[in-house]
Structure formats: C-alpha cells, structure tokens
Amino acid sequence: MKLASKPLVLAAIFCGIATTATAKEYRGWNTHPPDYPVSVALDRFSELVAERTDNRITLTNYHSAQLGEGEFATEQLQFGALDYGIFSTAPMVNTVKELGVASLPYVFKSPEHQFRVMEGEVGADIATAMNEANMVPLSWFASGSRSFYANEPLNTVEDIAGLKFRVQNSDINVAMVEALGANATPLPFGEVFTALQSGVVDGAENNWPSYESTRHFEVAKYYILDEHTIVPEGIIFAKTTWDTFSAEDQETIRTAAQEAAIYQRELWAAREAESRKIVEEAGSIIVAVDDKTPFSDAMQPVYEQFASDPVIADLLKRIQATD
C-alpha cells in the first residue's frame, strides 16, 4: 500500500484544523428595531463573544422580528430551530409553569427587586424548569413596568372595564385583563398599531419605550401608570444549541451576556426618560396612580387561579420574602 507523501499528509492535517476552527454562525431573534436599547445591547453581546472566541463563535442577530413574531419565535426556540434571542418570559408561561409567578400582577416591587429575584436562588430554580423545556437563560435585561394605554381616557380602574385590550398570548395576561372587567385580545406585537388604528382593540399595555417606538401613542394617547407587571426579559439559548458548546465557551458566552445586561440597563434608563418626554410632547395624557390598591385587589381571582399550584405558591412566597 502506497503511503501519501509528507506534503499531502500535512495538507490534510492543516485542512482538518482549518475546518475545526471555522466559525459557526448562530441565529438570534429579537422583536425590537436595531436602535432599541435591547437591540444595541444584544449586538454588544455578539461582539463580545466574537472577540473572546477569536470569531470562532458568530452570533448573528435578526432584529425587528425578521425571523417571525414572538409566539412563533418562542416555539422555534423551544424546538431548537432558533439558537438564541432576547425573549420576554410572558409567552413561555404556558410551557414553563414556574415562569407564571414572574408574570403575576404586582409580584415585583420594582425592577431592581426583579433582578435580585431572577439572579438569586428563585431565579436558579426557574432556570432549571426552563432547561426542561429546552431553554437556558443567561442574563436578564431591563424591560420596564407595563401599564395600560387606550384611545379613550383612562383615569381609574373603572375606566378599563369594557374595553378591548391587546395582550401577549399568555393565560395570566388574559386573566389579568378580564379581572379588570375588560376584554383580552391576544395579538402578535407587530399587529398592534393597525389593530388600534382600525378599532380591533381599544388599547394595549406596555412600557414607555415600546409605547413610543411603535408609535402606538399616535393612536392611543391615554396612558395610565398602573405598572401592573414587570416581566423578565433576557438572553435565552436553546439548550440543544447550548449543549454543543464546551464548558469554557459556555462561561465566555454567559459572562458576555451578563455584561451586555448591565450595559442594557444603563441604556434602558436613558431611553425610558427620552420616550416619556417624546410622548408627552406629542400630546399623550399621562395619569399617575397614587393608590394601586383597587388594581391589586381586582387581581385576587388571578392569584387564586395561577398561584394555587404548590410550586408556584412556594416561589411566590420566596419572592415576597426577598428584599
């Protein structure tokens, strides 16, 4: 048997090395436009990973829901068709019941309280449950508190009753709106402006930057600061993708994700202030809520329905005990 010449052997070896070292591209989903704080921070995350792996791992972000709307993208992540992305946990509640506790109205005292919970022992237990659904959370971004807005005046909890509100496709969100006497209409995020404009819905609920960046304030200028939910949102990988990385690469990616989260929170604070100024100058009517008791009291049926499970009840108790 004739042996290959030494140059050919070396060429084969170097070819193998080159193949091994070739960068692999991973696709990341994001619903927000490129200049949004979430998007800017997600791009920073990709840059950090590329730098620290010598471009061996390429994380390509597709902003503005280019890879599909939220519910579809969430399903794709669960099935491993997407590698990672920035996801709100609200649409995942129907898949990971433990996430339901984080979507309960008024469960978090503030965004800072939410971070302490999600980055602590409670968050670790929730992450374990997410792993079983093929999801690995790496860091948590600021997503602001969500409040109601509509195309007619909202001054009290009574004004919400009877209106049609767009909500994320989550049983808890539907129950929350119905507990206030309103009609819940789950719709993809990208369809909300047209739905408001055409009267399919009377209002929606979201944070300052989303209310402003989507131009929803142009068709729904009444905004009441009830701040009912502070829903976790962060960088989440498909576990099937995550498990392909070495332990060293996992640590590199996780660290980059956490650094990106700190950066995003700084951007978010500035964007919230800017967004509020924009909508106020455009004529939006902002109503502060000094006493949220009427809102929280109306949520008792929601707690009875979604916090009766022993697992959820225990998580809720631990969240309430977290300073």
UniProtKB/TrEMBL annotation:
GO cellular component: outer membrane-bounded periplasmic space
Transferase in keyword set: no
Signal peptide: 1-23
Bilayer-spanning residue ranges: none
Domain of life: Bacteria
Keywords linked to the UniProt accession: Signal
Keyword match Signal: yes
GO molecular function, one term: carbohydrate binding
Pfam families: DctP
Stored InterPro entries: DctP_fam, TRAP_DctP, TRAP_DctP_sf
GO terms under biological process: transmembrane transport
Protein name (Swiss-Prot/TrEMBL): Solute-binding protein
